[in-house]
Amino acid sequence: MNKKESIIVLYQYIAEVIKSLKTEKKDIHNEEWYYFLENLPKHPGITFNYLDNKNNLSNQKILQVEKLAFLKPLYIDKELLEWVNGDWDDYKASVKLLSEKIVKENNSVKVVNISEEEKEKLEKLLKDRKLWIEEQKKIEVVRKLFDTLYAKYLTLDRDSDSLELLVANGIVKVPNEDIYYPILLKKVNFSLDAERNLIMVIDSSDNDFITQELYLNFLAEVENVNLDNVFKLGDKIVENNIHPISKTDLIKDFFREFIHNLNPRAEFVEDKKINDDDNIITIEWKPILFIRKKDDGKIEAINNIIKDIEGGGEIPGYLTELVGIIENDKKEVEDIPDILFTKETNNEQVEIIKNIYSHKAVVVQGPPGTGKTHTIANLLGHFLAEGKNVLITSQTKKALEVLKEKIPNEIQDLCISMLDDDSNDLGNSVESISEKLGYLNLEQLKNEYEEIERNRNDLKEDIKNIKRKIFNIKYQESKPIIYNNESISLKEAGEFLRKNERELDKIPGIVSSGVLCPINNEELDFLKSGYKKSVSKEEEKEIELGLNKISDFWSLEEFEEMLEAKKEIMFKIELLLKNRKYHINDEILYIDDNIIIDLEKFKNYTDIDNIIPEELKIIEDWKKDVCIAGTENSGDRKIWLDFIKDIKKLYELTNNTKDKFFKKDIVYKDIDVSTAKNLIIALKNGLEKPGFFFKHRLRKAKREIADKVTINKRILETLYDCDLALDYTNLVELEENTKNSWNLLMAGNTLIDRVNNNKNFSKQLYSYADQMEYLLNWYDKERKVFLNKIENAGFERLDISKTEGSPIYVDEINQILDFIPILEELIAIGKVGLEYREVDKKRTEYLERIESIIKEKSFLGNEIKNAIEKGNTEKYSETLKKLEVLVGKEELYRKYKDLLKNVKAVANLWADELEKGLFNEKIENIYNAWRYKQISQTLKELIEKPYESLQEDILEKSEELNKLTAELVTKKTWYNIVKFIEEKDNLAISQALRGWKQTIQKIGKGTGKNTVLYKKHAKEKMLLCQKVVPAWIMPLNKVFDTLNPVENKFDIVIVDEASQSDISSLILLYMAKKIIIVGDDKQVSPSDVGINIDKINMFRRKYIKGKIANDDLYGIRASLYSIVSTTFQPISLREHFRSVPEIIGYSNKTSYDNQILPLRDSNSSILKPAIVECKVDGKRDEKNKINKIEAKAIVSLIEVCIGMKEYKNSTFGVISLLGDEQAELIQNLIVKRIPAIEIENHKILCGNPASFQGDERDVMFISLVDSSENNKTLRLVGEGVEGATRKRYNVAISRAKDQLWIVHSIDKSSLKEGDLRKELFEYIDTIKEKENTFEKTIDENTVISDFENEIVKRLLEKNYTVKQQWKVGSYDIDIVAIYGEKKIAIECDGKNLNHSQEEIMANLAEQEVLERCGWEFIRVRASQYFRNPDKAIKELILQLEEKGIYPNNKEIQSNRVELLDSIKAEALELMEKYEEN
After folding, report:
1. CB 1290 within 8 A of CB 1250
2. CB-CB contact of 322 with 1127 (8 Å)
3. Which residue in 205, 182, 185, 188 sits closest to 152, CA to CA?
4. CB atoms within 10 A of CB 330
5. Span 301-316, pLDDT tens digits
6. Angle between helix 637-657 and 769-777 (nearest 10)
7. How many other β-carbons are positioned within 10 Å of the β-carbon of residue 1101?
8. pLDDT tens, position by position, 106-133
9. What is the 3-state secondary structure (H, E, C) of 209-236?
10. C-alpha dihedral sign at 732, 738, 744, 747
């Protein structure tokens, strides 16, 4: 398939899948939630408004419900209360009046009756209490309605990407079709005033554009209705602005008109009493509030794409790659511009930018909390500056909510964030562009941004230079002084220099720093004493020319072996040729200059031993005769063919009658075969016809045959005897005829006697039949083949000489067959010739190789060459020995030159003196002298350098760079906007922008008579203006609902949380020139629960199987991320900023192979411990997948936490790890028990892992739901299909920033191996162990460097709490000083480690990352410390105190255990309290 067809079938498949997943609701009772507004209780706390004013339906309140406080209990005197049985203050409790009571008086007990006065007072109070109870119950109804609406408000807020709230009216009921659904719909919104405990349903749509919907889908398959008639009524809704929440005649008349147009028999319920038996379609005025799943317009989008492709629309290259079509066009690799990130960045973000310029698609893996939003904000700023128009989308709006805030303020208005139905952002953007268009000048903008670019480049160069200086200082300070691979601390170095100055200061000049001594004492003596006594001038000359290796030459044994082999083969050839002359030239063997064998052809002929056919291996005259007889011109061919036929017939008859004649001795007496045959026939005829006449004949026959023919000496008597004798006679007759033919054809041939004398004549003759047949056909069929084989095997073609008077074919046959014995000899000669050729070739090649490697003027080389040419083994051996001696001396020569070179490379002056013989210093230990020289130079170079001031400079300039980058992004973005507007093609947009501003000014306060008209004009202009907006931020459902993928093409599309997006999101790939897919295959992906997989597979087979690459991966569980990452290798974000290490450690270990780098410190949160395991005595309800005790426990825990100062500013979330029912139960309990203001302030949200993906909370509560029962082993919770369960656990655990509560009802001992819950509990146990241990002193074995250890020792002596090698993710901090919850990093410059330049750069980069995470650093430099340790420590302590780090007499730890116990105890009390009520 071509690319167009492949893409079309892919989108057709996606469309079919979408359609199959979509179920059209026909009954309002089957929607997500519904509430008939007629059922609203009548109470002052509930306000319901009909929107009947068609001219003012904008932003109207439809419903308002207040969560009223309960009335205080009625006051009752304590004495009266004693006469009441029951809880007086509880309106749900029943109370009873007592007529008597028992009282104690003077140590005795008596019964007292109620007085009439008391009774009268109590009866009046009971009446008042009854009224109070009624009012409390009414309030309870209102409160329950508030809780219901608020719970739905939270659900919509959580699932706004898939659910929407509507009001509706005009419910159509179709008998026998299960249809009960409204036709007039309008989207509305919840609005919450948490402080006043009010929840409202608001119609927030703009009055200028009617958004009511005439919904008819549910009627599509109904018979006897006319949908064409009712479609046009949609215009009437717009004309009259008919609102669902209306009760005027206008709406009712509309319903009448609708239903009668739909079906003439149908009725409006108010017009006629309808019975169920009437069986007619009805419509009913019945306002309703309900929630449904959104229709996101995907099918329409796909249809538009397919239509565009069919019309020749351009298909993005990465989309064709995805389906497995690689086009030959060269990929355009764009130049990477200056990368403009306005926020902190890392290497992965830079890699993403670089990849998008070299590829059309980039995939980014973003594990939890790795800064995906931050990364996207950085990318967005860069792309806007480059003049790109960008779409940023995600499966849910959660991931997009804070994105806009992360880009520079000055360009935020250029990013339209459409997370819901509010279009204010578009208006703000157009207004901002329109306003700035009035004073922004294109040329001025260009000049401004170019100046900023210059300043920024200068600043970058300054920062680069400062970093280089810092690096050099750090490198010098941290680089140990090396002697013979031994690290020497600066402390040891100073002591060494002071002690050894006179003895070791011997080496002249300057030496290279950081290198080992180039020579030892023995080598020094070798250089000084003069090596030339061992090497003559001639030898030195030969060495300088360059000696060959001994291994370059054959050994003497190999040389002799070659010569001996050559001699033996020559003997073989001479033996075969019998003194004939021969020679081999260019692979040709010549014999007597007549016979020629091409040895190359001979070698390559693979079947040389079978070149002569088996039938011709022995040549006899008769064979020639047969060959000649077989030619076309011969007249004897038929004779031979008949003869062969007789042979085969005789052989066959002999075999067939062998059994018949077994032990039958048939003898002819004095008669020949022919006579015998006649006698037998006469006898047989007489026996067959025994009549009178024939009896006479029988007697005659018997008389004539008598005993002339006998069987086993018995005369013939029966028909059987006659038949047997006759068969035998026929065989004998055939044998005699065949023998006669044989004798005739083979006359004069020795073969005739061999056959005739053979007892088994027929068998012997038969053995030659195949040969005769082959030879008869040889001339015509085999001759040419045979001659070609001879030629192909390297022999000369036979030259046939003509004999006068003889046919040519006779000559050919005779001469070819005569040549065969000669050919056998030549084959033997050819084989030996090959051996000779191989040996001679080996000698020639060796000689050529020697000639190529020996030096032109080398005496030894020429000697060995002559020895090879002459085959002189004695000379060859002698020359090899000379070479061996010289090789030994070459080592001395090389050693001398190398030693001088080595010295010269690191100590030039010293080398010159050695070469000239001027260096005569006596040095007992050259290593110590060299060590001294190295150390003295290094310490001389370690002067005071301004490290701290350079650090301050770089921080200052980095801040300035960030500001300049933001300015540059702003200026370039606005420049590109203005440039776009001012282009001729965009004149209409420019006019619309200017016109929109003027129109808005005309609207003013919105009270003029033409306001509606002006608003309409403004909206029309805005639709055109939006084309200039460069950045759109909207969830996927909004993209599909709002943007036509054909008309809205973006330079860049960025998709966040792409692992949640199903295959329908492949629509996005058609909207982008380039695309960035951000997701994580370790997090929740699309689910296939409740989906007909067989049906999906049927669609796959129908549309894409075998037509696109990886078609099996396009299943219902496939995500945009999983599909695209099959073609494009993901770039992984690794730095984790969200959770404290204890929390993210679980996901890091179980899902990411510890590749995540946690950059938050444990103590960055005051909530301890980070993970809390809370076991309750709960029980799972198998039917509903809920655990009420767990739910109540979680709500109680949240209630308690909200009241504690430690959690004052914390946000809370709850995730159920087993189904949605538990989450819904918990949310309803939260709404019921926790005030809305607290829910909003703490952003309390409940859901499943999928609904929380892309979101986070400070504190998360996880409900495992499952429970252990009767010590039974729990069912295994494993990885799940395609790791789905593992993904849910990963997402759930990683949502928490500061603290994670695992609330469960499980006996951990009942969990099986491989159960994810067991794994989770085991992880929690390891975290508990780590949190319970805190070491003040470091392990004695953890020796990193003497310098670090000295600093630590001095600080410990001052009673500071310090730890070495403090882990922050994969980073190590040298020393951390701790005071309470406060920590400071101490970096030792000059520690005794052999750091490479790369390690130093990495260390500096790590510090930048850690400073981004809030760490503060103090640096201690070895050069300063070892000059004056006391002074350096004093300065360090001053810096520590400035940063709030003091000595500790006792370890300060937060009261973690008490806080936890307090929370749990209070939560338990709350649970008990609610249970009582």
Report:
1. no
2. yes
3. 188
4. 6
5. 899 999 999 898 888 8
6. 160
7. 12
8. 778 888 888 888 888 888 999 999 999 9
9. CCCCEECCHHHCCCCCCCHHHHHCHHHH
10. negative
